[in-house]
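Predicting holo structure, heme C bound.
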Amino acid sequence: MKRALTLGWAVAAVTIAVAALHAAVPDGAKYSGTRMCVACHRAKHKDIVNSYIKSPMANALIEVNDDNEEKVTQYLKGDFKTAPFKQDDVAFILASGVHQQAYLDKDMKVLPAKWLVADKKWVETPAVDATKECLYCHSTGFVAADKKYKTAGVGCEMCHGPGSAHISAPADKKLDTVARPGEMDPKASAAICGQCHSRGRSVDGATAFPQGFLPGGDFNKFFKHDEVKGPGLNQQFTDLVKTKHYEKGVVCATCHDPHGETGNIAQLRKPITETCLDCHKAKIVDIPTHAKSKNVTPPADATCATCHMPEGRHLFDKTVADKK
Ligand code: HEC
Ligand code: HEC
Ligand code: HEC
Ligand code: HEC
Ligand code: HEC
Ligand code: HEC
Ligand code: HEC
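Done. Tokens:
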């Protein structure tokens, strides 16, 4: 399903004024599990459901057990003949393996090497406690104090909120039984993704994630960003909050399809350059003309990201391009 970019500049500017600082789901709502959501929504939202359950996010954590053999065979990437630990030690697979994959033992401790998919090799990784350092972002409804989650992988409820109240009254169209990111202020929508696409610590310092945050809530009450200097994994929101894009309401779901219904890389709604020109075409005709006007020479296969998102950074700034 193709959808238009949802945020016009004018719309964004108006909605930003209405800061949604309360959670968008009722107090006390509980996580019900992705299966429940899928059971009802498969009928009316077949494309969303079918594409989402195959996306990397939905498979960001896979339990290794007999009930799950098919999934394990499909997603397990490491070559355990050369691994510094035994395959039998692997109780959880962390990430679907787009670029890398890590592994946890039965006590939820990170095993000491991760697999680089393209390079086909193991690199050392710190053997930290995943209940404090990893699992909230790779599962649904994780509570660090209990060391438990509701569903493995990023389920519907991490973005739409815990669903028990919605499930008991699904036809209630009030905004507050389920979080509707498409109707939220863009900064609140970005914070939903920011729960996991950020670098830093919880405000009490105990975890690497914003334990307690719910969609629509006040992100800064739960999390403090690190001062990141270089490129790295899961720091897109930490980068984005510093940009003019964020200020103007150009956020994650403007460019990315959260449910992965497209064939483009990184779940983009449109190919990279088309994504950018949708908004920038008033001043920029194409890459060769633009580059010439800035006295830079683009590589033959350049996209807008080549200069404005080096190494995948989400800073979209002019200084980065300057250094090219
Ligand atoms: C018992 C069936 C049922 C279950 C279970 C259910 N939903 Fe719904 N959901 C509905 C109905 C009915 C609507 C209203 C449909 C509409 O407004 O078009 C709805 C609406 C929604 C909407 C808003 C759609 C929009 O157009 O804005 C979202 C998001 C949503 N559900 C997510 C979920 C999630 C997440 C779960 C799992 C926790 C879930 N639903 C479980 C029936 C269900
Ligand atoms: C704050 C949330 C968060 C925490 C904490 C977190 N991750 Fe992730 N992880 C993500 C996100 C988001 C991505 C995908 C983002 C990206 O590609 O930049 C990801 C991707 C990955 C990948 C796959 C990378 C790839 O590109 O294929 C691995 C492996 C991984 N994480 C392991 C871990 C391990 C091990 C820990 C704990 C030491 C951990 N993560 C902690 C959010 C988190
Ligand atoms: C990574 C975050 C994320 C996850 C996970 C997610 N959604 Fe969404 N969902 C969104 C966002 C953001 C929107 C707003 C519309 C958009 O940007 O496409 C949305 C919109 C919707 C809508 C509104 C109707 C529509 O046509 O767009 C429904 C229904 C929905 N989601 C259901 C689900 C179900 C069911 C699941 C699990 C199978 C799910 N979502 C998982 C982020 C998410
Ligand atoms: C609960 C944590 C969580 C939330 C919330 C979340 N993500 Fe992610 N996201 C992840 C993890 C973990 C991965 C890595 C999955 C993997 O590689 O297995 C990921 C991967 C991705 C990817 C890369 C997919 C690919 O094909 O390489 C995109 C794009 C993405 N997320 C966008 C979003 C957007 C947009 C939102 C908000 C609407 C969002 N995410 C919300 C945890 C999360
Ligand atoms: C203005 C458009 C735009 C916005 C806003 C945006 N992204 Fe991206 N994102 C991109 C493009 C383009 C790429 C591909 C970059 C490349 O391949 O060089 C990308 C790549 C990614 C990836 C893949 C990284 C990888 O190594 O595979 C993730 C994850 C991601 N974005 C998450 C997010 C999240 C989360 C947000 C909000 C905090 C966000 N993006 C906001 C355009 C955007
Ligand atoms: C939804 C509309 C929208 C999309 C899509 C979009 N932009 Fe922007 N962009 C803006 C707005 C609005 C500004 C701020 C303009 C201003 O304040 O002068 C901006 C500013 C910029 C700037 C200047 C930043 C600065 O600090 O001066 C760069 C560079 C940029 N965008 C690159 C990109 C790239 C690359 C993409 C695609 C990955 C993209 N944009 C996609 C709307 C968009
Ligand atoms: C070969 C590198 C390169 C490519 C590719 C590139 N740009 Fe730029 N861009 C630049 C440079 C250099 C500047 C000027 C930086 C400065 O003023 O310090 C710039 C400036 C900008 C600005 C700020 C406004 C302005 O005109 O100064 C925007 C917006 C922008 N680019 C968008 C885009 C979009 C959209 C694309 C894809 C169609 C793109 N750029 C592709 C190098 C590039």
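The chain has a mean pLDDT of 91.
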